[in-house]
Every structure is written in structure tokens, then in C-alpha cells.
Amino acid sequence: MRTARRLPAGWRIAAAGIGLAAVAPLIALVVEAAGGSGGLWAHLARHVLPQAGVNTLLLLAGVGVIVGVVGTGTAWLVTAYAFPGRRVMAWALLLPLAVPTYVVAYVYLDLLHPLGPLHGGLRAVLGIDDPRDLRLPDARSLVGCIVLLGFVLYPYVYLTTRAMFMTQAGGLLDAARSLGTPASSLFHRVALPLARPAIAVGMVLALLEALNDIGASEFLGVQTLTVSVYTTWIARGDLAGAAQIALGMLAVVLALLALERYARRRQRYATARRPQPMQPTRLRGIGAFAAFVATLLPVTIGFLLPFAHLAMSGWQRWRQAGLSPQLLDSLWNTLKVAVLATALTLVAALVVVWALRLARARRHSRVEAISLRSASLGYAIPGTVLALGLLAPMGAFDAGLSALLAPFDVRPQLWLMGSAAALVIAYTLRFLTIAIGNLEAGMERIAPSLDDAARSLGETPAAVLRRVHLPLLRPALAAGALLVFVDVMKELPATLLLRPLGFDTLATWLYADAARGAYEEGAIAALLIVVAGLLPVVLLARAGHRMGRCAA
């Protein structure tokens, strides 16, 4: 019995190693920042951090207001009211998730250019010949960045808040009506307080994405902490200074996570086995039209206009010059690192989740639980910070391996930093949380009795995983693989810092084209990224549709 209850050491060591690998960049970042001189801290505090910090806080505050209002408002409209087009808008409101923030900034810079299509169309309608006689608001500003990021990231709040409305609000609203609460007060007196934890979760996710952004902020001329980290390291070669700024970003991340925890501190709900769905109120006339326009507007700004412009620009580029060999190379590089990173991420997530299940079955899961939490840190850490923290460990590995191979007349080289391996490792650590979440949810649906039955027949833990769990985990594995694959394709900050010389992905190709103002060149790359991003949105829409049917 003692042998049967003992956790295999291999699974525990592997899970602990993955958790340590996830924490190592943060440890290296602290060490690197501490190695900077005191004068460097004073210089950053005087000349860099005030402006970048203020811009970052204003950006997060503005984006938080927009995603909170738009996400909560649209979730309430499509859940509480019935109007023409409601079923379409319920899933269409997720479409901006397919557009990375740097892509939407890239598109609107072209659309709002004084010689761009929007200005040209308005001048033709108004009969104006001189572009200087018609000026629309400039997108290159902090306000422009806030608006664009807000209308791309609001689906995070929409998703979490609508799920809360669909599964919790029906019975409580009926109870409120029976107690005499007027219909005009139901939203702000019942539904909004009920949804506050869900709103907080969605807002924190959106703000973490806004903090991780580098392309949109740089394109729009906003000096944020993320942009400062990149320019300090790449343009000035100051790794210690970049690490010190990155620690400031980590402080912002911790503040956001603490805010989310505080908002959910009293989250306690008692519900029936089957939640009572909310019965939508039918709108007619001007009310129905206003609801449709209110839900269509964020979809238009966040997806329809960017996608239509990219499609037209990409088609024109295709007809004129086709696909350049460099773009095809970037596409192949993107697919290659995405496949490798997805496979490695799924394997690492499976090891951590399976080790935790084995440990819980034997009632000693402390090490595995710590490993799981450590491995889940990556998604909360901005890609720029994670990449910066990986520079020192990867450099130490390259130096150590070269020293070991020196007696065999192998020339020293950058084994990790000089290859795509650095990107694969960074992607794995960054998106490991997504794979762990999917696999943990899938494994919780598998009854422990199946494990006991397999072990009673003499199967080892590895055989139980291979013969029992993997066939049952195929949907979770497929969903996790798709989400990780698409996120890797879209990742820009970590790619900019860690890619080897001459190695471009679709994201860096687009970034380079936008930096030199060649918007036609990057349209096809941006379109490919957006089309790939539509795949997980379809999955989310189908999941939301099934949730609505189950609630009904």
C-alpha cells in the first residue's frame, strides 16, 4: 500500500522543473536590475519613469473606462433585451478579439492619414481639394491610443459579464421585481452589483493586454513603460536600465491583480442546480434601433473597419506584386515557431496537470500546487518583461554549453539566443497558463474511479495517462492547442526582443513595415494574423451559444 501511495519522483521533479523555469526570468530580472548603478536609478527616476509612468497609468485608466462601459453595456443589451439582429450581435461582439492591438493601430494610421481613404472620401463628398482644409483628429496621441485599445479589448469584459448575466441574473431579477423594484432600476441596483466581480476579472485581463502592448503605443507615439523597456535595451543597449523599468511594470501588474482580488473578495453565490435564464424584454421602434446601433458601433470600430481595409489593401497588393519571398519566409517562420511552441506548451502543461492529479490522489500535493501556480504566472507578465528576464538565463546556458563543448573543438556560439529556440521557450512560458487552464478543466471531468480501476489492473501512471486520459482529453488538447497557436502568431513584444538576426515573423514583418510607413507591404501580413485570430473567436462564440441554450 505504501508503494501504491507513493508519488513517482519523475513526475514531481518534472513539474517542479517547469514551475522553476517559469519563475527563473523574474529572478534573473531582479538580479539584473540590482546590478545597475545607483546613478542609473536616479536617471530613470528623473527622466524616464515620470513621463512613461504617467502615460501608462493614463492609458490603463482610459482603457479601463472604455472596456468597462462598452463591455458591460453590450453584455446587458444582448442579454436583457430582444431586438432585430440580437442573435448576430451576441457573437459578433467577440470579433475584435481577432484583431491584435498593433494591427488596429496600423490600420487606423492608414485610414486617418491626411492622404488616406477616409480623408479622401470626405473631401470628395464635401468638394474640398486641399487636404489642409480638412483635418480629422490625429490618431497619434494618447487619446487615440486609449480609444483604439478600448474598442479592441472590450470583449474581455463582455465575455465574463455576459456569462454572469446568463447564468445568475434571471432568478434574482424576478425576485427584485416581486419586491417592487422598478424596471428602470433593475440594472444599476441588481444586475450591476451582481456582475461586479465578472467586470473586474474582464477589466484586469484587458488592462494586462494593454500593458503588454508595444506596437500600438509606439505607432501612435505614446511613450509607455513597455516602449521604454524596448527602447532602453534595443536602442541604448542598457540591459540593467531596461530591467529596472521592467520591475516598475511588474509593480503595475501586481497592483492590477490585487485590484481584481479585492473586487472578488466577497464573491459568494448560491444558485440552483440549473440556473434560471433571464427573459429578454422585446424592444420595438426607436428603442430596438438604438440597441442595434449601440452593439454595432464597437464591432464596426474594433473589427469591421480594420478587416475591410486590410482585405482591400491586401487584395490590391496581391494584384500588383503578389506575395514577396520575404513575406513567405516570415509566414513559414511564424508557422514553424507556432507549431513547436504549441507542442512544447501542451507537453509542459500536461506534465504539470497530471503530476498535480497524481499528488492529490495520494494526498500530498503541495509541491505540485506550487508548481502549477508558478507555471501559470507567464500570462500575467508582459511579453517584454518576460523576454528581458530570459536574456540572462539563456546567455548563461549558451556560455555553459560552449564551455562544456570546448574540449571537443566545438566553436562557441549562441545556442539559444542565436536561434528560434529562444522564441519557442518564451512563447511556452508566456502561454503555458492557457494550456494548463484547458487541460485542468478537461481533467476535472474525468472521474477518479477510472484512475483507480486502471491502477488496480497494474497500469503505471504513465500508462494511465496514455491509455485513459489522453483519449478523453482530446477536446481540451485541441482547444488549448488552437488558443496557444493563435496567441503565438500574434505575439509581438517578446518576438521583437528575442528573435535572431534575419528572423521575421508576420508580427515583426508588420511592425517593420509600419515603422517605415510602407502600409501596403504589411496589409497581407496583418490580414493573415487577423484571419488566424478568427478561429478561437468562433470557438468562443460556439461555447457562448451552448451556454445560452443550456441556461434556457
Structure commentary:
- With 552 residues, the protein is mostly helical.
- It has two domains: 1-25 and 323-515, MetI-like (MetI-like fold), CATH 1.10.3720.10; 36-98 and 142-266 and 287-320, MetI-like (MetI-like fold, Orthogonal Bundle), CATH 1.10.3720.10.
- The protein is 76% helix and 1% strand.
- The chain is built from 23 helices and two strands.
- It has helices at 2-5, 9-34, 38-80, 86-92, 101-111, 117-126, 142-153, 155-178, 186-212, 215-219, 225-234, 239-263, 286-321, 325-361, 366-375, 383-405, 421-444, 448-456, 461-472, 474-490, 493-498, 506-515, 519-551; strands at residues 81-82, 281-282.
- Strands 1-2 form a two-stranded parallel ribbon.
- Helix 2 (9-34) packs across helix 15 and helix 3 crosses helix 8.
- The longest helix has 43 residues, at 38-80.
- It is globular.
CATH architecture label of the largest domain: Orthogonal Bundle
SS class: mainly alpha
**Uncertain segments of ≥5 residues (pLDDT<50)?**
1-5
Tell me the radius of gyration.
Answer: 25 Å
| Widest β-sheet, arrangement of strands | 1-2
The CATH class of the largest domain, by name, is Mainly Alpha
How would you state the average pLDDT, rounded?
82
Total separate domains: 2
SSE sequence, one letter per element: HHHEHHHHHHHHHEHHHHHHHHHHH
Number of helices: 23
User: What is the distance, rounded to the nearest whole angstrom, between the alpha carbons of the first and last residues?
Assistant: 48 Å
Shape: globular
Strand content: under 5%
How much helicity do the residues have? over 70%
CATH topology of the largest domain: MetI-like fold
Give the CATH H-level superfamily of the largest domain: MetI-like
> What's the main sheet like?
2 strands, parallel
Give the tally of β-strands: 2
